[in-house]
Design goal:
426 residues; 21 helices
């Protein structure tokens, strides 16, 4: 039955049916074939999305949209420019730091890609060729789901159950996120030097840095307040996401004053659409999860994999290869919702740290957002900038390779992921 459901889902997806509905139709056909009472379908779907932790997803989406409209990108760019603008590849460094800063308040690669593309690509294109400029922005936007807060980590923690906490997942992404950001900056310097691009930007002046820090302090305080409160136990991730919305709205209306009442309907609709997509995926996937549980698929997979290998490292490598392929063809939220309930329990059977496995899972699918043919971040950047996909892919592969190198390093040296959350009690 599980094989039939998966085959039906893949066939419907290839025919162009939206992924959530492809899940629903495949599950419905399987239920009809097995004679199960269909009244359980709406009950399971409603139970799957009727969750307090899941409320953090629309709140964080809304907070990200508000912060972008509030002019946060411009302030982060100005601060980054005073720090690293006057070095080889300086404008690319500014983009990476702006992407990392935006990741601390947004948590979604797609919205970050849209904001950074419209703001930075015109300036980047004056210094670098358009393909490289677009690739820089795509790589910077991909930091969004890695550096906390992260919508992807919330979905993973929800699908994994009580063995993984949202706060722990957030903290697991801090050190690798910093490593990837520094690696991107070093890579940009190497490419800029190799291609002989000119030095741009203003010279470093401490007075200018301090002035921009004062101007951006209220923006930088938001991730400290929200993530610090979640990690410190002052409030839950859902409560923290609601605080982030209030903070972002106050910032936009009373500090930067770029947010208008007329902007709110569009902001709310965009956040609602993104959240509804995730909710629909979770609801329809809950029926497939039920069918696979009845079919004893997790137990069968565990027996099969245990027969193949007893090594946790080999298992993580097999999962990484699977997710490499899945990430190229399947939207990441659908991959979390379909695969986490299957693969996470098996990882625990192998004795793998749940936070370690969870972060590797998320990072693998985040890389998939940069890989064709279904690299959603690539499509967003190409759509906003008008750059051809071929030009962009030719320039983005070094960033993909670096992220895979960090993935392998995190796989081989678990403390890179687990040391910080464990030190904080997760």
């Amino acid at each position: 039955m599980s094989a039939a459901v998966v085959a039906g889902f893949m066939a419907l997806s290839l025919l162009g049916l939206p992924i959530a509905f492809a899940m629903g139709v495949a599950a419905l056909v399987a239920l009809l074939a097995t004679g199960v009472d269909l009244s359980m379908v709406p009950q399971r779907m409603m139970h799957a999305v009727n969750s307090f932790p899941l409320m953090s997803i629309p709140f964080f989406m809304l907070a990200g949209e508000l912060m972008i409209k509030a002019g946060i990108v411009e302030r982060l760019i100005a601060l980054a420019n005073t720090l690293v603008g006057r070095v080889r590849g300086g404008l690319a460094h500014v983009t990476m730091l702006a992407g990392a800063g935006l990741a601390t308040v947004s948590g979604a690669a797609v919205s970050d890609a849209s904001a950074l593309s419209s703001t930075l690509v015109p300036s980047l294109s004056k210094v670098y060729d358009k393909g490289f400029a677009a690739a820089i922005v795509a790589a910077a936007a991909n930091l969004g789901p890695i550096i906390p807060p992260s919508g992807a980590m919330i979905v993973y923690a929800f699908m994994a159950g009580s063995s993984v906490s949202v706060g722990g997942m957030f903290m697991a992404g801090v050190v690798p996120g910093i490593i990837i950001t520094i690696g991107f900056i070093a890579l940009c310097s190497w490419i800029a030097t190799r291609r002989g691009w000119a030095v741009t930007g203003d010279p470093f002046r401490l007075r200018a840095v301090l002035a921009e820090l004062r101007r951006s302090a209220i923006v930088l305080a938001m991730p400290v307040l929200v993530i610090g409160g979640i990690v410190g136990g002052a409030f839950t991730a859902t409560e923290g996401s609601a605080i982030a919305v209030v903070y972002a709205a106050a910032l936009g209306f009373f500090v930067t004053r770029t947010l208008k009442v007329a902007d709110l309907p569009g902001i709310v609709v965009r956040a609602a659409i993104t959240s509804a997509m995730v909710g629909a995926l979770i609801a329809f996937a809950s029926v497939i999860t039920y069918l696979m549980t009845v079919d004893l698929l997790p137990q069968k997979l565990t027996v099969l994999l245990k027969a193949l290998t007893d090594s946790p490292l080999v298992y993580m490598t097999l999962v990484a290869v699977l997710l490499l392929v899945v990430g190229m063809f399947l939207e990441s939220n659908a991959a979390y919702i379909m695969l986490v309930p299957l693969l996470h329990p098996i990882a625990i059977q192998y004795g793998i740290d749940p936070l370690h496995f969870g972060f590797l899972f998320v990072l693998n699918l985040v890389i998939g957002m940069l890989t064709p043919p279904v690299g959603v971040v690539l499509f967003v950047v190409c759509g906003v900038t008008g750059v051809r996909m071929r030009e962009m892919v030719a320039n983005v592969w070094p960033f993909i390779a670096l992220m895979y190198a960090v993935l392998v390093a995190c796989m081989l040296f678990p403390p890179l992921v687990t040391a910080l959350p464990r030190a904080l009690g997760y």
